[in-house]
Every structure is written in C-alpha cells, then in structure tokens.
C-alpha cells in the first residue's frame, strides 16, 4: 500500500514522502497513529498543493531577505561606548546593543542571534557586522562605535 507520511518515521521516510509499506503495517501502525494517509488521488493532490504553497512562501521569504539586505547595506548605525585615555574602551559592544540601536535608529527589527560577531567589539571606529537574514542571504550592517 502506498502511504503519504504526515510525520518523520524512523527507518521509513520523512514528512511528505510517498512510501510503499505492507497493508498490515499501514492498517495497524501508520494510519491509526496518524503517521500517514493512504495515497489516494485526493490526498496526492492535496500534498502537491501544500508543496506548491510551501515553495511560494519560501520564495517570498527569500525575496524579502534580499530586499532587507539591500536596504541595510547603505545604513550606518551609531553605538556609543564609554572610553578613557588613548581610545581605550570600558567594556564592549555586543549584538544586543547593536540590535537595540538598529531598532531605535532605523526602526527595523533585527534579531541579535542572527548577527555574526566572532568577538565583541572593543574599539572605536567603523565595523562591518554580517547579519544572517536567510539561510541563503547574509547582509552587512555597518556599525560606527563612538565615544559616549
């Protein structure tokens, strides 16, 4: 019997796949536990429509991420930090402060977890911070660290 999986089933397949299983396994295991549906014409058509919708949504998210990356590449966000003699800073600038500055100055919501800093910023000046907006899109945000 052909079955459309609704969930990942160990040693059988992943969600959305069409697999062939014995009739007894389908009747006694897959169907009662709602792990899959029988692969009828209607169910196959529904799966096809769901896949098309998912692809459309994924494409829209990708295009939105490209647009946001293009929007932030020209922007400069200013973050202030206390510093002493000779430009030595007290503390550092983390992604949390950068995210708050972006929200305040650019009115954009950028998640601090998506900013890629190898280490916190501990010097004054201009720094380019990569921001992972989508698995395929990484934008660059310029951060100007100035003395408070």
TrEMBL record:
Species in which this protein is naturally found: Brotonthovivens ammoniilytica
Family: Belongs to the bacterial ribosomal protein bL9 family.
Taxonomic lineage from the root: Bacteria, Bacillati, Bacillota, Clostridia, Lachnospirales
UniProt-listed InterPro entries: Ribosomal_bL9, Ribosomal_bL9/RNase_H1_N, Ribosomal_bL9_bac/chp, Ribosomal_bL9_C, Ribosomal_bL9_C_sf, Ribosomal_bL9_N, Ribosomal_bL9_N_sf
Domain annotation Ribosomal protein L9: ranges: 1-46
Gene field: rplI
GO cellular-component term (any): ribosome
Domain Large ribosomal subunit protein bL9 C-terminal span(s) in chain numbering: 64-146
Residue ranges that the Swiss-Prot or TrEMBL entry lists as coiled coil: 37-64
Keyword terms, alphabetized: Coiled coil, Ribonucleoprotein, Ribosomal protein, RNA-binding, rRNA-binding
Name the UniProt record assigns to this protein: Large ribosomal subunit protein bL9
Presence of keyword Flavoprotein: no
Function noted in UniProt: Binds to the 23S rRNA.
């Amino acid at each position: 019997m052909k079955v459309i999986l609704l969930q990942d089933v160990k040693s059988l397949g992943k969600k959305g796949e069409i697999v062939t299983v014995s009739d007894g396994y389908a009747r006694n295991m897959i169907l009662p536990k709602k792990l899959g549906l029988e692969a009828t014409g209607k169910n196959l058509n529904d799966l096809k429509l769901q896949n098309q919708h998912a692809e459309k949504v994924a494409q829209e998210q990708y295009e939105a991420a490209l647009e946001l990356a293009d929007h932030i590449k020209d922007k400069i966000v200013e973050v202030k930090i206390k510093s002493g003699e000779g430009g030595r800073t007290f503390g550092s600038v983390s992604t949390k402060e950068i995210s708050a500055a972006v929200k305040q100055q650019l009115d954009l919501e950028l998640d601090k977890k998506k900013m890629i800093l190898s280490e916190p910023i501990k010097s004054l000046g201009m720094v380019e911070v990569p921001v992972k907006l989508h698995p395929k899109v990484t934008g660059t945000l310029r951060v100007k660290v100035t003395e408070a």
